[in-house]
Design goal:
The structure is a homodimer.
Chain A: H1 11-24, H2 26-34, H3 49-52, H4 58-78, H5 83-86, E1 89-92, E2 96-99, H6 100-125
Helix pairs in contact in A: 1-2, 1-4, 2-6
């Protein structure tokens, strides 16, 4: 599947990465903060998808992601977070002190970062086919 | 609604722009090529949304876009294009000679360009809220 070049990820890789985040990052870290645990979060494995996605189709991965996201959004809603909760702190293994509010904002922006990445990667796969229009299509030159 | 700064577009502006494209760009130009018209396409109005969207909610615009896109995809399918058709030529008012295949590829990449733009604009609206995580979220620094 197409990537943006050496060392970059295909949309398939990205979906596997998002799945790993649903399982090990956002909600587990939110729970850790709310439980008042003072030790650092476990490091997030940015390469997990390269083993975990093996043998699975893109369709299967998308379904898994949709299921996990649905559950996690329900879990988040069930936390009934207050403004004070959003100020509660956790310890990131690299970044140091972070708040629950920052964690939740990052969950959103991280999604959007990968949505844009998927759009760029798909666009570049059609880049040459646009012929003279290439000059108007700035996305074809983003992050290259 | 949030933009990426002076002279850039909000997601609301983008949806209006996509609507104008469905009405005046992709399918009308494809028809012109298939009809063998040799004159240049009419110039596309990149500012049309600033008057045409006035008084409409984002929800209304999204519904209009979905309806137009559905109709246009059905129209495209109904054209039963052959490989030879994709090589047929039209005249772009600025770019000169272009093929029908290039027009259709541009329709796709143009969508993706604006999908990425919407993701960037939404991400930047939450940028500060991510706190220390900002350093990992490359989208916050794209096209700035």
């Amino acid at each position: 599947m197409a990537t943006e070049g050496e060392g970059t990820w295909s949309p398939y890789d990205v979906v596997g990465h998002l799945i790993h985040g649903e399982r090990t990052d956002w909600i587990p870290r939110a729970r850790q903060i709310l439980a008042g645990q003072t030790g650092p979060f476990e490091s997030f494995d940015r390469m997990a998808q390269f083993t975990e996605s093996q043998g699975k189709s893109l369709g299967e991965l998308l379904e898994t992601f949709a299921d996990l996201r649905r559950e996690n959004v329900a879990t988040l809603a069930g936390m009934n977070l207050t403004k004070a909760d959003l100020e509660r702190k956790g310890l990131h293994p690299e970044l140091g002190e972070v708040t629950l509010g920052q964690l939740l904002a990052t969950w959103v922006v991280h999604d959007l970062d990968h949505v844009a990445q998927i759009a760029r990667t798909m666009a570049k796969a059609y880049g040459e086919a646009t012929g003279p229009w290439t000059v108007y299509l700035t996305i074809l030159r983003d992050r290259t």
